[in-house]
Automatic annotation (TrEMBL):
Interacts with PSIP1/LEDGF. This is Interferon-related developmental regulator 1. PANTHER family: INTERFERON-RELATED DEVELOPMENTAL REGULATOR (PTHR12354), INTERFERON-RELATED DEVELOPMENTAL REGULATOR 1 (PTHR12354:SF6). Keywords: Developmental protein, Differentiation.
Length: 419
């Protein structure tokens, strides 16, 4: 390959510019500074687009490091801003670059390209253009997922990308079934994990099995009810075996998938009955109260928290409602289907999730939030507390922390003197 070029990554400064779309005026109250200088929005927009065009060109560079850096910079931009018009004009160029990087790149480059493919579809939403992107990239992603010679990390990224892109774009039930079968062929191998004599290989493959299971679960949430029934009959009695896996993330993925399956099963049939309920609840209760000393405290705490919720879902049909704040709005996550969907998009959008919940028409449609709430700068400014009030609050919080710490120090001092 050629010499790697110096690629200036998409920076936080770029991400803070509130001029990236028709939705830019209501990004976040905190982004407006009191009496701040006026910004030439048109010039800023042109400058940012110029940078992004450069990154797109660099995805075809001879140097693998340069290509990967360009992909990562595009990912950062796409996750932090709505760039619909910019992307619409260059979707085929971007699709060709992603396809090339997945086919010919090494592990890290393939992962970056798969991540960019997810974000490209998130930007485009569910339309004909996204369907064209998926028709091009779908077969390539499936090939990598099923390729035993490809790196586990690349197969993981492609499995996740396959699930998310299919979720976003497909109205074709045949394509949905085909994608789910591809993912099933991967994670069902975990059912026979104990028979694998090569424990190292088995542990390594667990990461791939988790990604495939979570992507499959996401697609299950948009399946027709008759198909949901078939999948439940096929997997509900096998999934509990994964609760005994050594890997914490596999246990959690299996537990949350079980909770979601029970939720869907009871929606399709109010009198749904599971034969091995007693054995399953015993397993879940053991995981919710696990005190094994050989496990890390952080892992045990996380596991107990998740499986308390899973046990409540299976036994009592209950879900602990969570509230997500973004700008002036609130969203309540009140079921496992919604939680699975939110967690998936939060994973790929990262810190940009709140911005996309405010501005992205596709995501707002998925979570039934309605059209974006249009707020002008003046309204947002009135919602923001003054610097003086913020100063008083911070001072009070600092004093409270200092007092609490002083008490703890005094107790330790007393104990030391006593002994």
């Amino acid at each position: 390959g050629g010499q790697p070029r110096n690629v200036q990554p998409f920076s936080d400064e770029d991400a803070s510019i509130e001029t990236m779309s028709h939705c830019s005026g209501f990004s976040d109250p905190a982004s407006f500074t009191e009496d701040g200088p006026e910004v030439d929005e048109e010039a800023t927009q042109e400058d940012l687009e110029y940078k992004l065009k450069g990154f797109i060109d660099l995805t075809l560079d001879k140097s693998a490091k340069t290509r990967q850096a360009a992909l990562e910079s595009l990912k950062s931009a796409f996750s932090s801003k709505i760039l619909y018009e910019f992307v619409m004009e260059r979707r085929m160029t971007l699709t060709d670059s992603i396809e090339r990087c997945i086919k010919k790149g090494k592990s890290d480059e393939q992962c970056a390209a798969a991540g960019l493919a997810c974000l490209l579809c998130v930007q485009m939403g569910s339309g004909i253009e996204s369907e064209e992107i998926f028709k091009t990239l779908g077969p390539v992603l499936k090939k990598i997922v099923c390729d035993g010679t490809a790196s586990i990390q690349a197969r993981q990224a492609c499995a996740t990308c396959l699930g998310i892109c299919c979720f976003i774009v497909t109205d074709d039930i045949t394509e949905l079934h085909s994608t789910m079968e591809c993912l099933e062929n991967i994670f069902t191998k975990a059912y026979q994990r104990d028979r694998d004599t090569n424990s190292v290989s088995s542990t390594h493959n667990t990461l791939l099995h988790i990604s495939a299971l979570l992507a499959w679960t996401l697609l299950l949430t948009i399946c027709p009810m008759n198909e949901v029934k078939k999948k439940i009959e096929m997997h509900l009695h096998k999934l509990p075996s994964l609760l005994s896996c050594d890997d914490l993330n596999m246990r959690i993925a299996a537990g949350e998938t079980l909770a979601l399956l029970f939720e869907l099963a009871r929606e399709t049939d109010a009198d749904f009955f599971y034969e091995d309920m007693e054995l399953l609840t015993e397993k879940l209760r053991a995981l919710a109260t696990d005190g094994n000393k050989h496990r890390a405290k952080v892992d045990k705490r996380k596991q107990r928290s998740v499986f308390r919720d899973v046990l409540r879902a299976v036994e009592e049909r209950d879900f602990p409602t969570e509230m997500v704040k973004f700008g002036p709005e609130r969203m309540y996550i009140d079921c496992w289907v919604k939680k699975q969907t939110y967690d998936t998009f939060k994973e790929i959008l990262g810190s940009g999730m709140q911005y996309h919940l405010q501005s992205n028409d596709f995501l707002r449609n998925v979570f039934e939030l309605g059209p974006p709430v249009m707020l002008d700068a003046a309204t947002l400014k009135t919602m923001k507390i003054s610097r003086f009030e913020r100063h008083l609050y911070n001072s009070a919080a600092f004093k409270a922390r200092t007092k609490a710490r002083s008490k703890c120090r005094d107790k330790r001092a007393d104990v030391g003197e006593f002994f």
